[in-house]
Amino acid sequence: MKYKILFIALIIFFFSACKKESNGTQLPAITHSGHDVLGYKINGKVVSVYNSFLSLITFYYYQSSGIVDIYASNRNPDCTLGFTFQYHDSLGNYPLSWIYPYNANFLDNTNGKISGTHCSANYSIDSIYNGTVTIAFFDGNNISGYFQFDAISDSGVVVHITDGIFDLYEN
Predict the structure, then answer these.
(1) Which end of the chain is more exposed for a tag (fewer CB within 10 A), N or C?
(2) Of all residues in the chain, what percent are helix, strand and coil, respectively (each to 5)?
């Protein structure tokens, strides 16, 4: 009986200690301390992703090439957002376009509930729909900034990713 109570207490502690996704009306605050948080609006709907049991954020910096990869995957809602760009050792704006290494995409696995498009689809940047990422802080381990982009599906549906923020620590 003692072990059952201990086991239940550990389970409750584990789940209460996890940061949860917040899909309310407010984006997370931007900091420069590597809190592993990423938030954005998809067609006006707020999505916030924290590293937790139900989501994953990855940030990789390939110093030799300057390539930065950022991906955030949620379970609730089931969607993935990612972007790649080449960092040139300075803070500021970088393009997100369809030409490597400046790329971005959004995957909606919610039958369009999250994007308001009523279909599950992969949305990508192309020669018409693109965006920007702004690096506000980067010390080689922590990176924070802002992003926005428009992307289009194979069927021609466009999504607008706006007011994006990230504060990440390299994995």
Answers:
(1) N
(2) 10, 50, 40
